[in-house]
Amino acid sequence: MKIFFIIPPNIHYIEPYAYVEADKSNAIRPSLGLLYIAAAIKSLPDIELRIIDMNLDGISMEALEKLISEEKPDMVGFSVLTFNLLNCMEVCKVIRHANPATRICFGGWHPTLYPAETLAFDVVDYIVVGEGEITFRELVEFEMASPDISDDRLTAIFGLGYKMSNGEIVINPPRPVVKNLDELPLPAYDLVDASKYSNLTACTDQIVNIMTSRGCPQRCIFCDLRRSTYRYRTPQNILEEIRFWVDKGVKEFFIQDDNFTINRGRTIEFCRLLYDADLGVKYKISSRVDYIDDELSENLRRSGCYAIYFGVESGSQKVLDFLEKGIKIEQIKKAFRSSHKYGIDCCAYIMIGVPTETEEDIEMTKRLIKEIKPNHLHCSICTPMPRTYLYNKLMDDGTIEHDYWLEFAKKPDPSFKTSFASRTRSAEELRKMQNGIQKQFYLNPRVILHEIKKTRGLKQFAAKFKMALKMLTH
Ligand code: B12
Ligand code: SF4
What we know:
Bound molecules: cobalamin, iron/sulfur cluster
Number of domains: 2
Strand order of the largest sheet: 3-1-4-5-6-7-8
Number of strands: 17
Oligomer: single chain
CATH architecture of the largest domain: Alpha-Beta Horseshoe
Helix content: 25-40%
Strand content: 15-25%
């Protein structure tokens, strides 16, 4: 069976909450979701897999059409976020035209949030809700055995959505999450040329993303992960993945867990194992501020951690409480003091435009940034994302008058504009403020000097310079 996974080109760009210039040019990473899915089916007999990144491989729609009509894959899979839905749909139209028999499967956050709406599209045959490794494997096994969708066995595949031959949409009960993440095969990086992926802030030429946990027990109201079941890989299992890459000459990792340090014992054990292994690797992580103290910072640094991304959000306790962030301003200061003390770079994610936020709250955030001195800053605009607690809360209290995400999910329109949460500031004002905060931060001589010191060659210098110019002229 021939299966292609396709990463669509950026045809339609729906401006997200992030700083637009950074969003467009910073990280080019492989989709770990797709790599995990591919790994889960790689060992099936007679399977041929291919990952096509249309951006990175410079594949035009015409070239794709030709490829699909020549190769006639049995199935094509997409990893779909609400923000790339339109791009995925454009590619699907081409596939349908080139080879109508190819089955199309959508997985990822968007079909998870809007299963029925996604399946209603003509170009979608299957959706996978939630974690897809086992569900997709069962689907592929089913397709291999008999591609007849009226077969009752499809109803036994938890987490799957499909259409009956009469067009009726069926969404099976959800599949429980994978409890033991160590059991999952490592992402199928052999299907991509990992050297093509880049990251502006990396220390070496090749940085590999790894994911060591899933879910988060915390309750930030803007986040899809709010109160989801937290599971983690054991330190031994993570080290196995790192060794695999070190053998291939990779020495740098981005542990892209939403929150690497949730389990303190696991973090310390991981640091100890990595330090003892003496592999000379560097890595960066994301963490909540309340999990960081001197003991942890020391362990992280000793084992090669060179940067931590912190969700600071605001310098106002009132705003943090509104966001149900569960942290205190003093904890933010402590985490930054501790990371700086051990020579770990800090990146602060902050947010403006939170409902109830006043001018004074924003000033407090700016003052806090001056005090904690991050090395990088990402300023976002508070955005009620689809089906998050924040979105539902604003719908319940009437602030959001109609379910515009649902409308978009039913009828995705390229002219769609993301609505921000603030009702007191316009989108233009917020974008202006966001740009101002980013510019002011990156024009600070302390930040520039630090960035120059860390730059490892002409190529990276040129990339950073280009980014700085864009920022200044934006
Ligand atoms: C790393 C990350 C990024 C990275 C890389 C994304 C990538 N290429 O994978 C970068 C920085 C580029 C990024 C960008 C953005 N991101 Co992001 N990102 C994440 C993060 C933290 C982890 C994703 C990840 O790798 N998970 C690990 C893998 C294993 O899980 P997974 O991708 O979910 O895949 C599993 C299932 O979804 C499913 N699955 C996924 N794909 C497929 C495909 C098939 C065929 C099948 C069968 C199954 C399947 O099976 C997989 C294995 O179990 C998530 C939060 C989270 N923890 O999910 C947010 C998240 C996905 N991002 C989000 C958002 C909003 C964005 C941005 C809009 C942010 C912004 N800039 O303003 C942009 C949009 C990018 C774009 N244009 O599409 C939202 C998505 C919400 C939504 N409704 O779509 C999330 C959920 C964060 C949040 N707000 O809560 N992101
Ligand atoms: S923002 Fe971070 S800490 Fe908060 S719920 Fe999401 S993943 Fe957890």
